[in-house]
Amino acid sequence: MKFVTEFASDFMGLFQSGGKTFVGWMTTIIPTVLLLLVLMNAIIAFVGDKKISKLARASSKNPVTRYLILPFVSAFMLGNPMAHSMGKFLPEYYKPSWYASIAQFCHTSNGVFPHINPSEYFIWLGIAQGVQKLGFNTMDLAIRYMLVGLLMNFIGGWITDFTTAYVCKQQGVTLSKEVEM
Predict the structure, then answer these.
(1) How many domains is the chain built from?
(2) Is residue 156 within 8 Å of 104, Cβ to Cβ?
(3) What are the two backbone dihedrals, phi and then psi, of residue 53, each rounded to the nearest 5 degrees?
(4) Coil, helix or strand for 62?
């Protein structure tokens, strides 16, 4: 009977812990993301949909701006998870590749720009601690990690373009390469 009681107590403890985490999110990350959404929508309203569409069209014209420059600027300015929302301005065809690129970049830049993904900063700190124990400079590692990340995120985004083309052909689906606002 003791086993059943402990199991039930521990089982309920999972949900109580989840509830505490949820309430923590309601007072930390959710208001931050909500305010970033408000800011982004205010900027879009101030600048205008046509100009934003023009910027998206210009950014989507080549892989360098699409998977190297735009993800870097989005992650740096908006942080994770808000940086993902910039993909809404890209054509449907490039959205899978955008996600591949931006999702990776929000991780590979943590050592230099911890504000991009503060929830995972502890992972970087764990790695940095080992590097420090070896007597190496952690900023050297952070910059290398970011530069390799930029290159790999660009390659990952571009390769996803080819994957998208393959799947579209296989499934008989046509995705637009034009920005639709």
Answers:
(1) 1
(2) yes
(3) -60, -40
(4) coil
Closest by alpha carbon to 89, among 124, 43, 128?
43
**Please, are residues 78 and 162 in contact by the beta-carbon 8 Å criterion?**
no
Residue 181 scores a pLDDT above 70: no
Q: Judge whether 40 lies within some domain.
A: no
Greatest alpha-carbon pair distance for the chain in Å reads 68
Distance CA 101, CA 68 (A): 8
The reply to whether 17 falls in a domain is no
End-to-end CA distance of the chain: 62
Q: What is the pLDDT of residues 99-116, one digit of tens each?
A: 999 988 888 887 788 778
Helices (H), the chain: 2-27, 29-47, 49-59, 63-64, 70-78, 95-108, 121-133, 138-171
The answer to whether residues 176 and 92 touch, using CB atoms and an 8 Å cutoff, is yes
SS3 (DSSP) at 123: helix
The tens digit of pLDDT for each residue in 1-25 reads: 788 888 888 888 888 888 888 787 7
**Domain region containing 97:** 47-180
Burial class (CB in 10 A: 0-12, 13-18, 19+), 53: middle
- The answer to whether residue 90 is domain-embedded is yes
- pTM for the model: 0.68
